[in-house]
Amino acid sequence: MKETSPLNLYKQLPQTNCKKCGEETCMAYAAGLIARTRKVEECTPLIEEKKYAKKLETLKTIVAPELKMIYIGVGDKQVKVGGEDVMYRHQMTFFNKPPFAYDVADNMEEAKLIERVKQITTWRKFYIGKWQYVEMIAVRSVTDDPAKFAACVKTVLANGNGFPLILCSFNPAVLKAGLEVAAKEKPLIYAATKDNWKEVAQLAFDYKVPVTLSVPFDLDGLKSMAVTFAGMGLTDLVLDPGTAPNGKMLQQTLINFINLRRAAVEEAQRDIAYPVMVLPINAWLTSDDPVRASYWESVLTAAFVIRGGAIMIKHSLAPSSMMADMHLRFNIYTDPRTPVQVKPGIYKVGSPGPESPVFLTTNFALTYYTVESDIASNNIDAYIIAINTDGIGVQASVAGGQLSPTKIQDSFNEAGFDWAGQKYPAMVLPGMAAKFSGELEDLFAGKAKIMVGPEDSGRIIGWMKDFWPPKN
Known about the structure:
By secondary structure, the protein is an alpha/beta fold.
């Protein structure tokens, strides 16, 4: 079970409060190690002084993730797979979202192959303040021809913008052909099975790449293979326990994933504590209807994002599928202890000028982007000031004291907003903060008029028609 007590980590530290790590105390640093906001290497006395060598090794063992973290790819697009500590998100948080690897195949015409690769690598969606995107490309061998597979991999590399790859085949000769082209990019190879494991293990050893072990619906067999590979010095492993797309075996798939996670996180079974692969793409084996297959692929994705899938191979590029999958993954892999926030300050919507209103909201990302969207979609040129409430929404921050008249005044002063340059110097409060209007009128006397806007930003357009510009 993952260590969650800073006191136990504190015992392995110098306990001198030297502040070299950036924290005021060793106890604060220990808490940072648990939250992963600090690294072991930041404690320079622990690293540099030999008398702490034993404590250093103990500390590294304690803070190591329960699930081994595997690195796939190179450069700035390298992905981290695994590295989790808990069974459920609410216990702490999940750290490394499962990368989505969308597939291409070696039987595709070159023009269509290049087009699909570009679709995969250029897909982006802005959601609650962050860009969502695809992380990987899975290159599948359909022809079972080493030469065609190598040519396909080469084309993907030439057009893939550095995206990490999964090389998919059960034929060691095909995998070798792909590795001869792409080994320097450190792809993940898929997969070693009960039939080919010796040859695939040799490939993983020779080319120094991570490897997937595939033993569908046989956890004992999967564990045995993992122990065998680890004994050969191959520990960059991803486990594939099988993904059934429907029926009773889908239930068994879910149970297997939960059991693997529990064995690693709660029972500390280190010989099977590796990230687990999911194959939502298997939904396409059950239907010729692309709409139905795409739907079930998203269902599988959702189920296993929530229940421990560490990396996924997918197919559908339909917006209805991709957006749902990306949004769910974003929400599950957002730290539940910390609200999603935008940077406090003044923002422009459209091309605001001296006649434009100044709307006030908090820096809770969902609130801010809702207000911004409602203003922009109605073609209103305006300023928005996002007040730092530690990411708490308007109603809760008014009630809890994170939003107050003095904080609003301080925020405008820090932003250096030029009220004198406004033809209609007026601040529009959200309706839920209306009780601050009287005190704000005193604080902003001679600078700006205080106006109370609607409680729902969707009604801003109607409010503008009735109340803007303000009457003296």
